[in-house]
Amino acid sequence: MMIVYNPAAGQRRAQRLWRVLDILANSGLRIELAETERPGHATELARRAAEAGVPLIVAAGGDGTIAEVANGLSGSACRLGIIPLGTANVLAHELGLPIAPRAVAAALAFGRTREVWPGRAEGAGGELLFVQMLGAGLDAQVVHHLPLALKKRIGRGAYVTQTLREIARYKFPPIRVVLDGVETEASSVIVTKGRLYAGAYTLAPGATPTERGFSVVLFDKPGAAAALMYGAALPLNMISRMPGVRVVRASEIDIISDHIPAQADGDCAGIGPLHITDAARPMNVVMN
């Protein structure tokens, strides 16, 4: 078992990781720990380990670290384990993964898996897998400009702070999107594999990452007032019922507008245009 760890997770989260490692080591399991040194390094570490025949590679970090490791495992039969140490831990909430160290260690030790279908996005900057969602528009603008020091200092509150900053200066350009051949337009777009967003908040009821296809959430109303209204509805789990919000199922999505910022699983994902489909094969994720 290799554990890919993001040391930027902070001291308190590092202590949670050490407790998991102690339990696994005391169970007699052989563990290799690899620390990431830069963005994209988790992908490189996971790819080399998969090529070397390591059967289980564990992402210890947030949704961005999980997505990087998933990109490294793409095309292999290697299993993906998760130690949730992130700010929002959206995928962990989505799959009902444990958070407590003893339960995390037990899940990794038993190694029962479930197939999850990642999404695949291709653009001018290349291609990447995402395990939960890809956003284009305001939420991606927030991710592109979020100071890492602020995120480390105040966690999830950093996204709220940066959102308020970006609302005042983002121009809300219309985003042209093609969903299974049908063109439409919105001010912001979130292409999601699962139900949840920004933690345990419901965005797309009925969506599941264990099936092919996507739920596409289209925010029709532009401007600061609409963005604030949508933001207030999120913690109430009412986004999908708000006026000006459409949730559409699609298997193939094209974001055809130029220069629209994109984010995937909370990390920068370049700019549009983007072509989005399911990954070529599902991924086996260790469950509890």
Number of strands: 20
Residue ranges: pLDDT <50 for 5 or more in a row?
Answer: none
Distance between the termini: 17 Å
Structural class, judged by helices and strands?
A: alpha+beta
CATH class of the largest domain: Mainly Beta
If you had to describe this structure to a student in words, what would you say it looks like?
The longest helix is centred in the first third of the chain and has 16 residues, at 11-26. α1 (11-26) crosses α5 (101-110) and α2 (41-51) packs parallel to α3 (63-73). The protein is 32% helix and 31% strand. The chain has a 6-stranded antiparallel β-sheet with strand order 7-6-19-16-9-10. The chain has helices spanning 11-26, 41-51, 63-73, 90-95, 101-110, 138-145, 148-154, 157-169, 224-233, and strands at residues 2-5, 32-35, 56-61, 79-84, 113-116, 119-123, 126-130, 133-136, 175-179, 182-186, 188-192, 196-197, 201-202, 214-219, 245-250, 253-255, 261-264, 267-271, 274-278, 283-286. The protein is built from 9 helices and 20 strands. The chain is an alpha+beta fold and 288 residues long. The protein is globular. The mean pLDDT is 94. It has 2 domains: 2-111, Rossmann fold (3-Layer(aba) Sandwich), CATH 3.40.50; 120-279, Sandwich (Tumour Suppressor Smad4). A hairpin with a 2-residue loop joins β9 and β10 (182-186). The two termini are 17 Å apart.
